[in-house]
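Structure Section — protein described below
Tokens — whole-number codes for backbone shape
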Amino acid sequence: MFDDRDEIDRQLLNAYQHDFPLTPAPFAKIGGDLGLPSSEVLTRYRRLLREGVITRIGAVLAPNSLGASTLAAMTVPPENLEHVATQVSVDPAVSHNYARESDQPCHPNLWFVVTTGDEAALDAALARIETAAGLVVRNLRLLEPFHLDLGFSLEERGVRVRRQTQGPDLAAIESVDRPLAAAMEDGLPLVDRPFLALGQGLGLTEAKVLSRLETLKRAHVVRRLGVIVRHRKLGYRANAMCVWNVAHDAMASAIGRQLAGEEGVTLCYRRRRAADWPYNLYCMVHARSREEARPVIARLDAVVGGSAEDRAVLFSTQCFKQTGARLSPTGRVAA
């Protein structure tokens, strides 16, 4: 919980979720900001990583920019949920895997994110998961993002809101960027010169690595470069996925842009419908408790109003896997 953290940990977690220093010695820069030697900054980040408070220090990419990704869902018999969830989590293409509950038993109860290097690999991963589970996988591709930049504030005890509605400039991508992003899947090396170490494994100079990351940030291909936290470890234990069935896509887009500006919304986007899942407008709400989340959800329902034919709220009940997205063909399994 964030209340258990001393002030230095709180600043290391809070201040650098965005805008991590793109300098040759970033931990020295952070140490200078906080009046600490770089060795203590590194020691603390290594400990936070071991404790599972952070998953990595690295990049969050715009969906479908340097690779291909989708949100997928299955309806799993409750007695088989743990077994199937384990099968799904083992697949290296899966980065996030959650059980979610709904008041409708026919609704999907296992939700996961699949990311690969290209469309063919994505289709293969979904087919592989479907075959292993023996269940239908709904492929709910992102169609339009409204708010995808997620951070959690420890200072205000609320979700940090930074809205980036601008899509990625794919023309800015160079051939070196995909291997660079893949090399960062597990995060920056926690050493004095992380960009130098990263470049050495790719045959790139430190200056080239810094230049490419700066360019990708300006192009919104890298949506965020910084400390990636596990929100549950910081007290955000209620995670609600709110979905609406808005008949007309143009109306869904207009409402989505409006929802993205609401306080308490952490993610907002329009997705492809499935044959038995008609919902196309999604919002994520993270809060410390369900009681804290419900007024936010009620406010979002009021914004949508009568434009939706149906809606559902699916709270997460268990996190089976949360790790960085994988662009490389294979990767380590991380729980």
In short: The CA atoms of residues 110 and 223 lie 27 Å apart.
